[in-house]
Please model this.
Amino acid sequence: FDTEVTDLRPVEDGWEIRTSKGTYKTRYVVNAAGVYADKFHNMVSNKKIHITPRRGDYCLLDKTAGNHVSHTVFALPGKYGKGVLVTPTVHGNLLVGPTAIDIENKEGTNTTREGLNEVITKAEMNVKNIPMRQVITSFAGLRAHEDGHEFLIGELEDAKGFIDCAGIESPGLTSSPAIGEMVADILKEKMDLKEKENFIATRKGVLNPNTLSKEERIQLIKEKPEYGNIICRCEMITEGEIIDAIRRPLGAKSLDGVKRRTRAGMGRCQAGFCSPRTMEILARECHKSMFEITKSGGNSQIVKGINKDSL
Model:
């Protein structure tokens, strides 16, 4: 939501949250701030915790390399986790990584030459002849490593109404559905919540035209011509899919938001061709100018000026 929390303080019947976009009051706070979870925990509790960002570098290979292995190949686990793996992805690519490098910068998602060299060297100890010339992108993410190497989930004893979800490192992604249910149960009990009779527990994903029959797809394009307009040629993503991703509740507001929901920009050219078209759709649907469209929110604007302005 492009909203930074600047302060937390207990008030009568709950909490006051000060943000970059105003002050809010709530009965409960769920601290799921990743590598920043220690910052907010330590604002309200005398029992301090410390989280170290642990960077993991990855290489993603083109779909032409996707069949190099048929199953995920793990190294022996070590002090810093399961090590560098080689795995086919559900979309047909080959993924290699990650490293496990402790850093201080909580925004340090940049890759390094040393990190990527480590990925390649360690991967080739278990899988030979990986076609690294087929790498289409590299990236890094941060795991929230808590000093005690534990998931910290639950209401704080000295800060009632403040619920931690801190230190959720590997296998945090796998655990996240269960963690979500656990925290929901905590709130359900404390707030005496009752499930609505008409509650819809499932959410439809963005329509993938490739799942339709030829006849169904033709009919869809007749009814909604935007599904016949290919925007991302690498992944064959249509304008209709991008519009769906933008218009739905909590829809995409950035290029990365569209990419994560539709895979537009995930192919071999890594958005080299489709970025301008996707930006035009975002600008139109979000009623913004091209100068306001970002890669990933915040100050990550892509267009800074027009070439002729400098002439």
